[in-house]
Amino acid sequence: MIGEKIKKLLIEDEKTLVKPADQVAVVGVKNRLNHALLLLTTDKYAVVPVLDDQSKMQGLISMPTIMQAIMDIEDVRFEKLAEIEVEEVMDTNYPYVYEDFELEDVLNKLVHHAFITVVDIQGYFKGIITRSEILKGTNRIAHEFERKYSVTEKATVIQ
């Protein structure tokens, strides 16, 4: 369990921890790969969430996923970009938390992912929590903890 004082330093403002859905670049399940590729390259994203027409989270799409979809043994078939829908190749195994998430769960998932999605209980996309937000808090702890708190080592108990 994460202590309250550490949590307070790690997350300066809980309202800013989750980047709201309306500020996150997403693609739709019915978009073609050329649209997803354009979004990824123009905005320099590594991966973006994929939503259905009701704004429910369905998966993630990334440049490697797109490239795998248009390659064969001998060539890259760029014409496939306009033929394949995102839902045909998206990664449906993605990290997420519900809106009432525990910070410990978020930290564990961010070890292996640049961001995790936040959804409500019905699966509606609410936003993302990025690794960079947590690293900002980690930086704050590294610089502020001993300024705010007196730290002493506990005595070692030998049994």
From TrEMBL:
CDD domains, sorted: CBS_pair_bac
UniProt-listed InterPro entries: CBS_CbpB, CBS_dom, CBS_dom_sf, CBS_domain-containing
Pfam short name (any one): CBS
Keywords of this entry: Repeat
Entry keyword annotation includes Ribonucleoprotein: no
Domain CBS residue range list: 86-136
Protein name per Swiss-Prot or TrEMBL: CBS domain-containing protein
Top-level taxonomy: Bacteria, Bacillati, Bacillota, Bacilli, Lactobacillales
